[in-house]
Design goal:
heterodimer, A: 547 residues, globular, B: mainly alpha, two-stranded antiparallel ribbon, 72% helix
Chain lengths: 547, 523
């Protein structure tokens, strides 16, 4: 079996398993759970195998030849008169931007499956939806055709809605529909941008009979655009990228669509609701992987298709401002929370702000920091949510004020907590530190984002403040609710099996980040080179625009 | 007088002749068959009629090899080489096909309907005959090329619809619905007739193509700009009523709620399709854009229709009413395609209709079968149903998701091509596309609410008894649901796109990529 087949298998195996689960009897809980677990293990093993054979010197980004494990077959090729040529490709593959995310997805989905063992309500439906969600996420990360990307992107919404809405907490219905509406509102504008790009493109056809394309990589080449008023998202001058009013609008239509997923201030309000109501495994998936789709989309699509817009100083500045607001505002909100899970949810807003800040830098070190932060936040925040889940499973309460002194009652738990909390606040020697530092160095190097980088440093202090304060209130002192003492046994094997691997990843990457950074460096450099090489024309066009 | 061309034309009229003949025979069967013969037999007879008529309609594609389908029925006396009352082109055939599929499905739904069985068993013969009559009228609407035939066709459909709407006459809301329908229908057809008379007065002809010829002279068109506008708006009232476009939509919720659900399904798909066919043909072939630019009016009606439909649907607690408003909203979406009036816009409407037929009929059928079991169409009574009917719940879910327009369902493809049509020729309709997508987001809320009450809410009284629906009905729903999903995949919607775009028929000569133009006529 060659590697591109493996990539397809990784993506669609959960979908096949979903069909299998649906065919199983309703009461066969064990069989359903072990099927999901087995699929998760196979998926993880295959992903690790792919990562091993991943060639880190190949750049990818806009060069189809240096993508790896590629499958590219025409899915629909139709000459449809008035509607023009319709070309949809089944085009999947990975580069250094998506490979870490694919790996992260496999790990997190595996952990989430183990964490789902405690779900007892409609087990069959739950695991079927979880498996469908898995395919949706995986597919989004590997798609290189815009149509395919959008289908997978939307495919995630429905399972997520039900997973929060059926298995969630008391206000689950509100949280679920809020998540659904926010995300859809973002993605419909993305759809308009997709259509605009499609009809502006021309891959190999003549100007009179253009061959439109959804191929993301083709859309990154200014040669593949039409000119004239019908091509609404064509660059200002043919043959090289250049800003036009509509291109800026389209950039922001896509950007906002992704920013809602990140979530970026001011679109973040769905996140605390969704997290608080979602069951633990779903919070883990949500924070661990789903949020990364937003920032991944920005790099893969926004920046790469609109390098001219992304390289505008004002745009970098704007992203940095929102990154800064996310970091500081998220941290302050986290500090004010009374509910442990909500605190962690707001810490995600803050940590994803670092990713945005890294993205605003437009240089290699900042981008490396951003991608590495996406990976680290995925693992660390998954731990944080699992840790909240551990105590919630025992006492069904998450109110910080009711706890205290857990360090004495659950020492093993405390051990893991310390690793996770200190990783979250960016302690040197743990993985979070590397990525945050890279983000700061990168963003500081960019003169347009320098100011916001300096201001964002406050986030490091605030981050330490809310994490340590949480640690103090929950784990030090004495237990506020005396009667819980007997209900708080230390972690069991299943919980260890979820948390220990993540803790090991966090520590190993903290001491030795090279393997992870190697995985992404090639593509990050390629992306930066690509953006820089289109910056010259962009600046000129921007000048024209201002006149 | 030479009748030969009439005789020649008969072969182009075979589907309609078949329907008319089946209608007459159905009435006779109903009148003379012994009491003990189930009137469902007439349903079978009607099915046979629809199949034959549909087959003959599709066979008409072979009548001509050229792209304009040059066979004309009842050529006008003044222009022997011009066009007649009725045109048989791919566009008409496409809609006839759609109407036939809808009629077949609705007939099957009706034969499976317990509502009709209990309320109107002895009169089912009439019911199926009226379905045949409605279909006959819709066939005429699809091909009408003359103001007179247009009016007659609409009336044939309307009169039959009034009767079937009030068919379960012991149900009070059914009678009320029929009454409202008659009044609204009477007024709007009267207004339309007045508009028709104005157009006739100004142009001296009732034939679409000849109206086009007269108005193509800019001097003539300019001279009567004001009365022409008034006439057009009046005619739009009649046609807008048929497709339930706002502000002529007010009858829709009441009629859809009151009519037997099989009829609601039929009205929401077939009647609307026929109305659209007529509206599109009338606008694109009778009125040169230079004389009178419909597009801003249609765009405004489209925005108004979809926004009103979606916003009103948010408030509904009855599923039939909810789907009534949703069907108004969908008419609004489709009007976007007409607002751009490009080939791609019209093709997108055709594609959307084919998809809308599948998902909407599926949704109505699911609701029909569920209502038979739980005795209600109220959303409140759907609480917790998901656990009590796992299969039908999922199927209804598929239809709802498709109506929202989420991939990977067919509804997404329909919307995708409509928005494509808006953005294809430049950015002048970008605003309409933005309104359209915002409306999709609004619609998510109420469609998903159906899923919410089924799956997220607890059933009152903790009922757990399964809701049993017969396997045959589930199979029909299953086929429609599978079609809904498959048509969302490129392998399957591709051929449909091809069909839609090759079905523009006589329209294609009018539809330049940038809308109807009379440039070539003036040369």
């Amino acid at each position: 079996m060659d590697n591109s087949t493996i990539l397809i298998l990784i993506t669609f195996l959960p979908l096949v398993a979903m069909v299998a689960v649906l065919a199983m009897p309703k009461s066969a809980h064990g069989m359903i759970r072990y099927t999901a677990l087995g699929v998760g293990l196979i998926q993880l093993a295959l992903t690790v195998a792919l990562t091993m054979s991943f060639n880190t010197t190949m750049g990818g980004v806009n060069d189809p030849k240096s993508f790896q494990f590629v499958t590219n077959t025409p899915w629909l090729s139709l000459k449809a008169g008035f509607l023009g040529y319709i070309n949809i490709d089944f085009f999947v593959g990975v580069d250094g931007l998506s490979m870490p995310m694919v790996l992260l997805t496999s790990v997190i989905m595996m952990i989430a499956t183990i964490s789902s063992w405690t779900i007892n309500k409609s087990v069959k439906g739950y695991f079927a939806l979880l498996l469908l969600l898995n395919t949706g996420i995986m597919g989004t990360f590997v798609s290189l055709d815009f149509f395919l990307f959008y289908v997978f992107w939307e495919l995630m919404l429905l399972p997520m809605y039900f997973l929060i809405g059926i298995w969630g907490g008391p206000r689950r219905e509100y949280a679920a529909i809020k998540f659904f509406l926010y995300t859809l509102a973002g993605s419909v504008f993305m759809l308009l941008a997709i259509i605009g790009l499609y009809y502006s493109s021309n891959l190999g056809g003549t100007p009179d009979a253009p061959t439109h394309t959804f191929n993301l990589l083709a859309l990154m080449n200014p040669q593949n655009y039409l000119s004239g008023k019908d091509a609404i998202l064509a660059p200002a001058t043919s043959g090289s990228f250049g800003v036009t009013d509509l291109r800026i609008w389209a950039f922001f239509a896509l950007f906002v669509g992704f920013a809602i997923k990140v979530p970026m201030f001011p679109f973040h309000t769905w996140l605390p609701d969704a997290h608080v109501e979602a069951p633990t495994p779903i919070s883990v998936v949500l924070a661990g992987v789903l949020l990364k789709l937003g920032t991944y989309g920005m790099m893969r699509i926004c920046f790469s298709i609109f390098p001219d817009v992304a390289m505008l100083p004002a745009v970098q500045n704007t992203i940095a401002v929102f990154g800064f607001i996310g970091i500081v505002y998220g941290a302050f909100c986290a500090m004010a929370q009374k509910d442990m899970k909500k605190l962690i949810a707001y810490s995600s807003v803050s940590h994803m702000g670092y990713v945005l800040l890294g993205l605003s830098s437009m240089n290699s070190i900042g981008f490396s920091g951003a991608v590495f932060q996406m990976f680290n936040h995925g693992t660390i925040t998954a731990m944080l949510f699992l840790l909240v889940g551990v105590v919630y499973d025992r006492v069904h309460d998450r109110t910080i004020a009711n706890f205290g002194g857990l360090a004495n009652i659950m020492p093993k738990y405390f051990f893991i907590v310390v690793i996770a909390y200190f990783a979250a606040l960016g302690l040197p020697g743990l993985s979070g530190w590397w990525s945050e530092s890279f983000v700061f160095i990168g963003a500081f190097k960019n003169q347009h984002t320098q100011l916001w980088t300096i201001l964002s440093l406050a986030g490091v202090v605030l981050g330490a403040a809310y994490m340590l304060w949480l640690l103090q209130r929950v784990f030090l002192g004495t237990l506020k609710t005396r009667e819980w003492e007997s209900h708080l046994p230390d972690m069991d094997k299943r919980e260890w099996s979820m948390l220990a691997p993540l803790a090991i990843v966090v520590i190993v990457l903290g001491v030795w980040p090279k393997p992870a950074l190697d995985l992404m460096t090639g593509s990050v450099n390629a992306l930066v080179t690509f953006l820089q090489s289109n910056a010259g024309t962009a600046a000129t066009q921007a000048m024209n625009l201002l006149k | 007088m030479d009748f030969s061309h009439i005789l020649v034309s008969f072969r182009n009229f075979t589907p309609e002749i078949i329907l008319a003949a089946f209608f007459c025979v159905a009435l006779l069967i109903d009148a003379f068959a012994p009491e003990k013969v189930s009137r469902r037999f007439v349903g079978g007879w009607a099915l046979a009629g629809f199949f034959i008529a549909g087959f003959l309609a599709i066979a008409q594609t072979s009548l001509t090899g050229n792209e304009f389908m040059g066979e004309w029925f009842f050529r006008s006396q003044r222009q022997p080489n011009g066009t007649g009352m009725l045109v048989v082109d791919n566009f008409a055939i496409f809609f006839k096909g759609l109407v036939c599929v809808a009629a077949v499905l609705v007939t099957v739904f009706s034969m499976l309907s317990q509502e009709l069985e209990s309320e109107a068993k002895p009169r089912l013969g009439e019911y199926f005959s009226l379905l045949l009559a409605m279909t006959f009228g819709m066939f005429l609407m699809a091909g009408a090329n003359d103001l007179l035939l247009m009016y007659l066709a609409i009336e044939v459909v309307s009169l039959s619809s009034y009767a079937v709407t009030g068919f379960t006459k012991n149900v009070p809301r059914s009678g009320e619905a029929a009454m409202k329908y008659v009044i609204y229908g009477g007024v709007s057809s009267g207004v339309m007739l007045f508009g028709i008379s104005l157009v006739y007065g100004m142009t001296g002809t009732t034939n679409f193509a000849e109206i086009m010829n007269v108005l193509s002279n800019p001097a003539v068109a300019m001279g009567m700009a004001t009365p022409l506008t008034i006439a057009c708006v009046m005619m739009l009232a009649g046609l807008g009523y048929k497709i339930s476009a706002a502000p002529f939509h007010a009858w829709t919720p009441d009629v859809y709620e009151g009519a037997p659900i099989t009829i609601t399904a039929f009205l929401s798909v077939a009647s609307k399709a026929a109305g659209f066919a007529l509206l599109v043909r009338f606008i694109t072939t009778a009125f040169p854009q230079a004389a009178f630019d419909w597009r801003p009016i249609i765009a405004a009606v489209s925005v108004f229709t979809m926004s009103l439909g979606n916003l009103a649907a948010l408030q509904q607690s009855n599923l039939k009413r909810l789907l009534a408003y949703s069907s108004i909203a969908h008419a609004g979406y489709m009007l976007m395609g007409l607002a751009v009036s490009t080939g791609s816009g019209i093709s997108a409407i055709l594609l959307y209709f084919a998809i809308y037929l599948v998902m909407n009929l599926g949704g109505f059928f699911a609701i029909q079968k569920i209502a038979e079991q739980i005795g209600s169409e109220e959303l409140d009574d759907y609480r917790g149903l998901g656990a009590r009917m796992p299969v039908v719940g999922v199927l209804l879910g598929v239809f709802m998701i498709s109506l929202v327009g989420l991939p990977p369902t067919a509804g997404f493809i329909g919307k995708f091509f409509l928005f494509s049509a808006l953005l294809k020729g430049g950015s002048s309709y970008l605003w309409l596309a933005v309104v359209g997508v915002l409306n999709s987001v609004i619609s998510l809320y109420y469609y998903v609410r159906v899923l919410k009450v089924m799956y997220l809410d607890k059933s009152p009284g903790e009922q757990t008894s399964p809701v049993r629906i017969d396997t045959g009905s589930i199979a029909i729903m299953g086929v429609l649901a599978v079609a809904t999903i498959l048509l969302g995949l490129p392998n399957f919607f591709g051929p449909l796109v091809n069909l839609a775009q090759s079905s523009l028929g006589t329209m294609s000569r009018m539809l330049m990529e940038n809308g109807p133009s009379i440039g070539h006529l003036l040369k």
